[in-house]
Design brief:
Elements: E1 11-14, H1 20-31, E2 35-39, H2 49-59, E3 63-67, H3 74-88, E4 93-95, H4 113-141, E5 144-149, H5 152-156, H6 162-181, E6 187-195, H7 219-225, E7 236-240, E8 243-247, H8 262-270, H9 281-288, H10 290-295
Parallel strand pairs: 1-2, 1-4, 2-3, 4-5, 5-6, 6-7
Antiparallel strand pairs: 7-8
Helix pairs in contact: 1-7, 3-4, 4-6
Length: 296
Amino acid sequence: MSKKLNFNGRVVLITGAGRGLGRAYAEWFAAHGASVVVNNRRHAGVASAAEDVAAAIRAKGGIAIADENSVETPEGNAAMVAAALDAFGRIDVLISNAAISPTVRMPIQDMPLEECHRMMNINFWGAFYAIRAALPSMLAANYGRIVMTTSAAGLFGQSDLSIYAASKVALVGLMRSLHCETFSTNVKINIISPYARTQMSANAISTELADIMAPERIAPVVGYLSSEECDRGGVILTAGAGRVRKSMIAEGSVVELDGEDMAGIWPELDDMSAITVPRRVYDSTRTMVPELVQAK
């Protein structure tokens, strides 16, 4: 029987937690003993989704507060981290989940620039600002777990979703670099690529798959990455439908270029039977340009 994770005494801040994946995470953490800060921006004329989730958690005996700051600005993210510190005196876990996708899929040349900028502001900069605000407290305590959110569209590409995909894959580069920066500490940063039926993905995933692709089936994966038991960082996990797999950025063998004959070496470049998985840029440099390493 698997051991149930215990988050008693831990404080978890989740962005975009008013519904979908974020709500599933908030309820999971509360059920496992965490004090949860439920962040979700309030929309004009609509009841507070953050307070609805926080109230539902408290009704079940859990500990939760609502936060309605927007992830779109540095000030909003600083305020939500301050709310966690003011209420609970610490922040142990940050789940960067808030995101938007295009209301209508279209080629890049047709997408309004305003929508492109807003998608980057929420999906990429929102995560950047949240981590930047939360990290100092974690480093001071020499403890923290950060789980970011990418997507299959970002990892592998999808037509008519280019800006969304770009905003999501940019987070992988951020995560990998932050992992390098925090490598010698007890702050672990990972990223998840979820497959779930939520309001954001409802047009792409039929209602018949609602149960098997429920957000609640991803929560245990995010929970483990957020726990003391997880000593890994820099990892990409794809999760959904009760299944998990590791994804990675890999390189094939180095091929010497003979003059300008690129066409002639394509078969060798296509051979990925001997891949390597660099942990950081220097690992790639050593095999690609060993002369550069030797010169140092």
